[in-house]
Amino acid sequence: MYPTMPPLSPMPTPQLAAAAPAGGMPDKKQYGLQQQVAFQTTLCPTMISYAPHQAYAADYGAQLPFMIPNAAMYGHTAHGMPFYHQNVRPGRRQDANDVGLALRSPLLDEFRANKARKWELRDIFGHIVEFSGDQHGSRFIQQKLETATSEEKQGVFDEIVPDNALQLIQDVFGNYVIQKLFEHGTQVQKTVLANTMEGHILPLSLQMYGCRVVQKAVEFVLPDQQASFVRELDPHVLKCVKDANGNHVIQKLIERVSHERLGFVNSFRGNVYDLSTHPYGCRVLQRCFEHLPEEQTRPLMDELHKYMINLMQDQFGNYVVQFVLEQGKPQDRNQVIAKLRGQMLNMARHKFASNVCEKALVTAGTEERRVLIDEIITPKTDGVSPIVSMMKDQFANYVLQRALTVAENDQKDVLIAKIRPQLVSMRRYSSAYSKHLISIERLLERTINGSKASDKPADYPSLSHKQIN
Q1: Is there a contact between 376 and 361 (Cβ–Cβ < 8 Å)?
Q2: Residue 12 falls in which region: left (phi positive, over 0), alpha (psi -120 to 50) or beta
Q3: Where does 44-134 have alpha helices with state H?
Q4: Helix (H, G, I), strand (E, B), or coil: what is residue 76?
Q5: pTM, full prediction
Q6: Where are the beta strands (DSSP E) in 188-308?
Q7: Which residue positions in the chain have pLDDT lower than 50?
């Protein structure tokens, strides 16, 4: 009546039958591995594998491809650059008649198991690439490279460069070994290693682990090679700026490369607002203002001033404005503060602009600060008291507290005189603002008691307290 349940064993196929040993099954494990290889060949006969590199003992190409569901395989990425999945570890070279899949060599197994033995780099020669792709092996090589002899460094270098460098650069563990080669290798080795990266700088910069190696290379290669990296990225610089990995490479170039070679900065013109309001672009723009000369940054800064009010209220743009207030030239800082005049209450009540208000109170000159605080103290023409509104607001109350900490004595006395009666009134008739009022009340007590500066609140509490959705 009911269909018979199929057997749990795989259906015999000509490929699987051919893989079965003729004389029985003396080795079940070996037979199982052979079946797996044959089955994969049936499913995906066109899998890509590396061409063998005869000069190296530890070789990716000599292994049969290993298929993982929903994961990348040994082969080439869309960028045409060699890549292997980070969770698959290459083993030793396999004999042509051995179809077994050794994902970890006996030497690496022994290394991981035998902690009592004192291992040296020479003990793993011939397996450097495999060890570099292993968590424990990679850490071992990194530590040894720091104190290795010239011969040991050359031995490690020769196994990795050029054939296996790109794979390890993109590896979760291998990238750290490559970084150590840049740190501790000879200048010739650094140059040769960087040469293997040329032509691949863009995809490496966009890759999670590759971007770290590119940054390290920028620090240690010669200026001409830095310029070569810049030329590769130049047509794609905006793509890199907006990439989670690539933006770090662009920042490093701005920090380390001579400004005469950074022609790509011109492509930021006309895109300042877009970059300032981008989570990664805002970082790159700040590095430009921090490291580049006036002739390169002035067009960007002038463009920034056109959108200052909007940027103050943006979740990322406000950080660029704060940077200008803190590290910008006096004339640029004054322009930002001028935009705040007449807008202090409105901006103080905004989640992001309130950060700018606090920074302005801290960085402004004495007279500018007095003007901003007078605006907080003076009632509006309609009779509304800015102080009362700020005491009640979840963001503006921090700006009010900042004003209390930086005000001159005469303005501080006026602020205290206006805040104290409001505290009593609000506590009597409402409990809705109790959290804000407690902070203000404590600050008021410390201010009145003339506490030392070290007892005041942290410099920028707004950055930690205003994460309110």
Answers
A1: no
A2: beta
A3: 106-113, 128-132
A4: strand
A5: 0.74
A6: none
A7: 1-26, 28-29, 31-33, 35-80, 84-101, 451-465, 467-469
